[in-house]
Design brief:
It is a single-pass type IV membrane protein. The protein has 28 helices and 21 strands. By secondary structure, the protein is of the alpha/beta class.
Length: 779
């Protein structure tokens, strides 16, 4: 009974709280005030205000600290007011989102509360707007420019897990705890985390292919993969792991460790071994292998597996502590070791970054040369490279081993050692050795310093060929000691050409892997994409099948008609008759008024708008004449004469558009060609009097651009006919003895006087093109 008496009071208090929150939400955000328009404004006014404010406050153009927040408010306001249903809900309830559904939900909650003393407490956790949402996602928010310029290039070093969310999304709230936990865990392992708000970043959400919220996707090597399973921790971890290539880490045992470590010479990389008691390779190690795959090769030893005892014993491994070893030119002993019970990403990064190169790495490409021998930025950052120019084979093995021994004994932070094969990089060798006879067929040592990124270096070559003797070692060591105090010792200068990549795969191999990736993408899309994503692929498939079967059917009918009995003389007569008819047809086309049917011109209306423009086949264009009811007959006759000679092209279609019906559509298009036809503001009293009759637009529906023909003006080679005075110049008025603001039939036809020349330039592709984001609706 006590609960029953307190029920109405609690309901009233909750109702008062909701009304207060709604009032605060309305006071905080008013889309009309943000866009600066009235409640009775039309969609055209709202769109114009949005475009003006968006250009002014776009973060890429406006450097004001509050520009980004202002731009988000502008986008949110336009999203509400451009949708009639959301706008009506806002006007009715004062809410910026789906207020009607919210109000109904609110009514149902109170109804249940009153009848059964029940209230869904999850209601109080609903984010009424973005300001009240959990701020844990704010540091991960992505914008389009940030995604394109930073995230995509960085995805070649680490995978990204990206969540697409929005306001008023119950499912987004449901997965939030799992997402927060997994994001923190994976970020600590080296996975990039991103969040895209579909309401504020619609362009980025569309670019990613996310058509619903919440959506989760992975990004690696610039490739997007969608997550399709239940949002739980294990599935998300497995999803990230599946993004990584399967051959990053090799399983190592007693049988193959010698082969693995001996590949340093072939791959020109140090090799890393991780000893751990986990039966599967840890995700942290896979992510590390992906990040350093260009510098290091990775192997994993499961110390609990039978067949690894010899390996663990040889390198004295503690089976209870994870151990990481780096091997370079000598595989019997690691050059560096790290042990830790809890391997952290920072510890591994610090360890591997100091062991990215061999002791005397072979210069196989320009990137490696630039990293081993960086450009001098200051005297304190000066670094010198000692390069052995030698040949391949057993003949040069002894000199290389002597050089490697010297490099191991004298490597310092300011000194790097490398070698290069003369036969594989002949331009590099010729620039330093000057093709001198004393170095021919022998090895030589050069000390160099890169001066700039254009290839300029300062260097000094040892006077005699490198034999690896003790005397050569003393001479080289003495030069390096002098170089520490006298940088001017490098007296020679030259410019080196870029090294070509010796280890780059062959073209056929690259083509095979590209084709394989494309097939796998199509296979994944076939089984996991929604119908909206599948429509382009299905449309392409059915179009190809239709063309194939259509061609076969047409060919079958053509073959059957050709086999009919007909004497050869009749065929020749038919051919001659056709040529005569074509000649007569050509003569008739030279008349001022062509006969009906010479040029097929259809009116562009809302019924055929999609088929004649929006969905026009690639490579096809629709040439549209702008006319009014009063000029229709005269302009169509002149238009037919001017374009008749171009009707033989199957890629050209001809239409006309009524200016009286679709002036707003034309004005929108001409906004993208304002230098050709300036658009007056809405307060211009001559706005509705502007004459666009005689304009011709060549519209490419597939590539979303158009070319513009401006009507011919009397006494000028070309100009914009903007008023009645432009039709008749003073000379013409005096010659006719009268002045009339209404142009006659002849002056109307003169508007298209130069159209045939314009059509020739259109087919040549030399006309200026005006691109638009999308085709407007023809209402």
């Amino acid at each position: 009974m006590e609960l029953g008496r307190t029920g109405p009071a609690c309901a009233a208090a909750a109702l008062l709280l909701l009304l207060l929150l709604a009032a605060l939400g309305e006071a905080e955000f008013d889309p009309y005030r943000v866009l600066g328009v009235g409640r009775g404004s039309s969609q055209a006014d709202i769109k114009k205000a949005y475009k003006r404010l968006a250009r002014e406050w776009h973060p890429d153009k406006n450097k004001d600290p509050g520009a980004e927040d202002k731009f988000i408010q502008i986008s949110k306001a336009y999203e509400i007011l451009s949708n009639e249903e959301k706008r009506a809900n806002f006007d009715r309830y004062g809410d910026a989102g789906e207020s009607q559904g919210f109000s109904q939900h609110q009514h149902r909650q109170f109804h249940h509360f009153h009848e059964g003393f029940y209230f869904d407490e999850s209601f109080f956790h609903f984010p009424f707007n973005s300001e009240r949402r959990d701020t844990s996602d704010e540091k991960y928010l992505l914008h389009f420019s940030h995604y394109v310029n930073d995230i995509v290039p960085d995805s070649f070093k680490k995978p990204y897990l990206i969540k697409i969310t929005s306001d008023w999304c119950f499912s987004c709230i449901h997965i939030e705890p799992v997402w927060k936990e997994v994001a923190q865990e994976l970020e600590a392992l080296g996975v990039g985390i991103g969040v895209v708000h579909a309401g504020y970043e619609r362009r980025l959400a569309h670019h990613l292919g996310a058509h619903s919220t919440p959506s989760i996707l992975g990004l690696m090597n610039g490739k997007i993969t969608f997550f399709h399973n239940a949002v739980i921790r294990e599935n998300l971890r497995q999803f990230v792991e599946n993004l990584l290539p399967g051959n990053l880490v090799e399983k190592i045992t007693d049988k193959n460790y010698i082969r693995f470590l001996s590949n340093w010479k072939k791959e020109n990389k140090p090799h890393v071994l991780l000893f751990d008691h986990m039966p599967v390779v840890p995700l942290l190690y896979k992510l590390t292998a992906f990040a350093y795959r260009d510098y290091l090769s990775f192997g994993y030893v499961y110390v609990g597996l039978r067949g690894t005892e010899e390996l663990s014993s040889q390198y004295n491994i503690n089976v209870y502590t994870p151990t990481m070893m780096v091997f370079k030119e000598h595989i019997d002993k690691p050059v560096d070791v790290v042990q830790a019970r809890d391997m952290k990403k920072q510890l591994i990064d610090d360890f591997l970054s100091q062991n990215k190169f061999l002791m005397a790495a072979r210069l196989t490409n320009q990137r490696l040369f630039q990293e081993l021998c960086p450009v001098k930025k200051s005297h304190r950052q000066r670094k010198h490279c000692v390069v052995l120019l030698t040949g391949e084979g057993d003949k040069f093995a002894e000199t290389y081993e002597a050089f490697l021994t010297f490099a191991v004994a004298n490597t310092k932070d300011v000194l790097r050692f490398a070698h290069i094969y003369n036969e594989r990089q002949p331009e590099f060798a010729d620039a330093l050795l000057m093709d001198e006879e004393k170095y021919r067929g022998k090895s030589a040592v050069v000390i160099l310093e890169r001066r700039n990124n254009a290839g300029k270096i300062a260097y000094k070559t040892l006077e005699e060929a490198w034999q690896g003797s003790k005397e050569d070692n003393f001479i080289l060591l003495d030069l390096l000691d002098q170089l520490r105090t006298d940088p001017g010792l490098l007296s020679s200068e030259t410019v080196l050409a870029d090294l070509h990549d010796e280890l780059a795969p062959m073209f056929l191999i690259r083509w095979f892997y590209s084709t394989l990736d494309y097939v796998l993408d199509c296979w994944d899309s076939l089984f996991h994409s929604n119908w909206r994503e599948m429509m382009p692929l299905l449309s392409l498939l059915f179009s190809a099948l239709f063309i194939l079967f259509g061609t076969v059917i047409v060919q079958a009918f053509s073959d059957s008609s050709d086999t009919r009995d007909s004497p050869p003389s009749e065929k020749e007569e038919a051919t001659t008759k056709t040529e005569k008819n074509d000649t007569n047809f050509s003569k008739e086309s030279n008349s001022r008024v062509p006969k009906k049917g010479f040029v097929e011109v259809t009116e562009l209306t809302d019924i055929n708008y999609n088929s004649n423009l929006v969905r026009l086949r690639p490579g096809h264009m629709n040439v549209v004449l702008i006319l009014s009811n009063s000029t229709k007959t005269a302009l169509l006759q002149k238009f037919a004469l001017e374009v008749y000679t171009f009707t033989g092209s199957s890629s050209l279609h001809f239409s006309f558009l009524s200016l009286d019906k679709h002036r707003e559509w034309l004005e929108y298009l001409l906004e993208f060609a304002q230098d050709a036809a300036p658009i007056p503001n809405q307060y211009d009293k001559h706005f509705l009097e502007r004459d666009y009759t005689g304009y011709v637009l060549a519209l490419n529906g597939h590539k979303k651009y158009f070319c513009l023909f401006k009507p011919h003006r009397s006494g000028d080679e070309g100009g914009t006919v903007g008023s009645c005075e432009d039709y008749d110049s003073p000379l013409h008025t005096e010659a006719r003895g009268k002045s009339s603001c209404s142009p006659g039939s002849r002056s109307i036809k003169n508007k298209l006087h130069k159209l045939s020349f314009w059509m020739e330039r259109l087919l040549e592709g030399s006309l200026q093109r005006f691109y638009i984001p999308s085709w407007p609706a023809l209402d």
